[in-house]
Amino acid sequence: MDLRVIIEQMETGEQEKVLAVLQSFNKEMSQCFTFNREEGQERKRLGELVLSFLSRELQPSCLLACLETVRILTRDKQSLDPFISRSAMLTLAQYSGIAHLAAPSQDPLEESKVVVEKDGKEAAEDSSVRVKESSPPSENPDQEVIIEALKSICNILFHSQTAQVIAADLHFIDGVAERLKQCNHPTWNQEVRFFDLRLTFLLTALRLDVRAQLAQELHGIKLLGNQLEATLCLCWPEPLVTARVGYEGFPPEELPPLSRQQAELAMEILKILFNITFNTNRRKVDEEEAVEYRHLGALLRHCLMSRVDGEERTEEFHSHTVNLLGNLPLPCLDVLLLPKVENGSIEYMGVNMDAVNMLLDFMEKKLDRGHKLKETLLPSLSLLTESSRIHRETRKFLRSKVLPPLRDVKNKPEVGSALRNKLVRLMTHIDTDVKDYAAEFLFVLCKESVSRFIKYTGYGNAAGLLAARGLLRGGRDSGIYSEDEDSETEEYREAKPHINLITGVVEEEQPNPMEGMTDEQKEYEAMKLVNMFDRLSRTNLIQPMQLNSDGKMREMTTEDLNKLATNSLFQSQEPADPDSEDET
């Protein structure tokens, strides 16, 4: 429909004509997400006219049509000018029902650098909750109007930094939080709840000050934890142990899958919680905060053990859960091990390992898929590493799964389909982060013992991590671990003297290339090799390196090479291993 015709009809000010042209425009543009730049000025003019209409008393049908038009127009990033004024934002906030607490702030903080996923469509259009008591909602609110206004605000915030500043200054988060407290009220339908959460997610993703306000002033962890609890219909049969209402005592595998609506709400809640708990896992928390985080951890354990209708949806739900678990303070992760061992549970050392085993399976699934490993694998790998570092039972269980007693000494550590083989292959991955995280996980499972780490990965694969930590000479890093009993297999003991430490396997004996040479011939060959190294290093093709006494590498000079050649170059010296082979 020609925008100029719509503008002409809008300028008449007659509601009937306006309703007719807007309904026709909305129907035609309902699935349009790309716009003709040549009509940019007309769209801006249409936006101004629609906003002026929204300041009048309108019939319900005309009001809804105007807001639908605003939603469509706000998909166009280039035509947002009419909608990013303070008055326009406040008008939309009033129609969405979140403006009753709006008040200007003195000094809004600078915008966050957090990136929000862009899928080329409007941020809003994706499509239970018990919290502390608040004032009830007004009777029979027009929820279609509220939803359209919320969608428009989401689109505007998604595209405009100016609008983000205005939304923070008008304290939109206060109004949304107030309604989140009411969201279990039967008045509010699923869509209102969803878009309240979507707006909260955008505000906390895009504004550092709003994130801090929700987390601290509005007690966001408790507020959203209660939202999650109510969305999933949970109860607490024991402290820090959850169950689905009506399914108390049922094992996780017998619970019905969550509905699509439950999953959508829960994932929005998890994303918001991720924003407001970002960077908390490394800092110390006080006693009151620890109680909140442990309560949240128990809820996340239930999420991890739950299924959603559809495998792809379940994996997405678990991904958000794992991401948030990685933000929890490390000591609070013990809630994953709290439930009692029941029939069908995975038990290790008297502890319920269902959640840890689920995390391990999730990590291996992401590893097998091999797609965008940095984004998909590292959250679960990091979570398992830190859990193993701080919780003895978790480490021992994971070691039994990932690094069982070594029997295969004929194949290289990176060859094979076992989880150990897959992780060792990652230790030489092209992505430095992926390589480092995989090595760190295995190193922690080995209690940061160099000899044990080399035993399971081979010196060649282990060299990167050991060099970075100054451990190439052996020893143990500074981690504190319990003593374990020896678990070397008979096969490993027999093969141990013949294992090549570089490759980690038994290799056929090779003939000695210097057999039959005189000392003069050996010295000649040594100096020949030194000269070759020297020539390559002078042309910067290679840089010979040497271990310092602190276990770190340093560059070798020509003098060092000559000294090495004359000081028993070919005598094999095997220093005593300072590490015991006590293992889990």
Strand-helix topology:
Layout: H1 3-12, H2 15-29, H3 40-54, H4 60-73, H5 86-96, H6 143-159, H7 161-169, H8 172-180, H9 190-206, H10 208-216, H11 220-231, E1 234-238, E2 241-244, H12 260-276, H13 287-305, H14 311-325, E3 347-348, E4 351-352, H15 354-369, H16 373-376, H17 378-390, H18 392-402, H19 419-426, H20 432-445, H21 450-457, H22 459-469, H23 490-495, E5 499-500, E6 505-506, H24 519-538, E7 545-547, E8 553-555, H25 558-566
Antiparallel strand pairs: 1-2, 3-4, 5-6, 7-8
Helix pairs in contact: 1-2, 1-3, 2-4, 3-4, 4-6, 5-6, 6-7, 6-9, 8-9, 9-10, 9-12, 11-12, 11-13, 12-14, 13-14, 15-17, 17-18, 17-20, 19-20, 21-22, 24-25
3D architecture notes:
Among the domains are: 185 residues, no CATH class; 90 residues, no CATH class; 42 residues, no CATH class. The termini are far apart. The longest helix has 20 residues. α6 packs across α7. The chain has 25 helices and 8 strands. The protein has 584 residues and is mostly helical.
